Amino acid sequence: MGTVRGELLRKAVHVSMGGFALLLRWLTPYQAMLCAGIALAFNLFLLHRITKRALLRHDERDSGYSLGIALYPAAVLALIVVFRNRLELAAAAWGLIAFGDGMASVIGVTARGPKLPWNPGKTWSGFLAFVAWGTAASAFLIRWVQLGALEGPRPWIGPSFLEVGLHGPHFAANVLIASCLAVSILAAIAESIPTGIDDNILVPLVGGVALYAATLVDPDQLIHAAPAIDPNEKIE
């Protein structure tokens, strides 16, 4: 199997696994942890036997083992454990791994184009694909999971990026999309820097921290505080 074809097959599996994030709308945290643990065991002991090592890169074939493929479900499990009381954030960070990082590789390999100035091994097309797909996937998954709270009491689903008005909380699409865009840009930058850290560690780490930090920002307070800031004021 050719290098490009093999990489596309690997990333097709990588991206498709993001579809399981939809289940976080209905699963409890412990059910989700169990599923992620089963996926981790499957990737460790059965996946390469079933696929006959078709998902292994050339440098992984001698060992018959892929660290990245093992780290993917491990990262998802870690996200669910950390965000066990905010599963919508776990789903959003999962979306960054599956669709942001996954589509960055797919577009980068197929479209190619100009290289990033700070990393010749990455392209602008892949970087922009990460931002676009990461923003769309994380925003969609947050709202998708939160809709589960309307179907019954689910205290493990939080109010991320909801605005509270006179008639209770309501969706704030502009705040949601702007926040997910900012988070996706940060995650894409982190993924594109040649740190030597596996993407399946770096992307959920940066994305998860940035998503949580974004939920702590009250956009209304920033808007109300803006007129009080005098750009001509001198600081002594």
Secondary structure: number of strands: 4
Which percent range describes the beta-strand content? 5-15%
Please trace the helix and strand order, writing H or E for each element. HHHHHEEHEEHHH
Give the terminus-to-terminus CA distance: 66 Å
What is the overall pLDDT average?
89
Helix content: 55-70%
Main pleated-sheet profile: 2 strands, antiparallel
Query: By helix and strand content, what is the structural category?
Result: mainly alpha
Shape, principal axes of CA atoms:
globular
Oligomer: single chain
Summary, kept brief:
It contains nine helices and four strands; from the N terminus they run H-H-H-H-H-E-E-H-E-E-H-H-H.
Can you walk through the features of this model?
The structure is a single chain. The protein has 236 residues and is mostly helical. It has one domain (3-219). The chain has 9 helices and 4 strands. It has helices spanning 3-16, 29-45, 47-50, 67-82, 87-110, 124-147, 173-192, 199-215, 219-225; strands at residues 115-116, 119-123, 162-165, 168-171. A two-stranded antiparallel sheet has the order 1-2. A two-stranded antiparallel sheet has the order 3-4. The longest helix has 24 residues, at 87-110. The radius of gyration is 20 Å and the shape is globular.
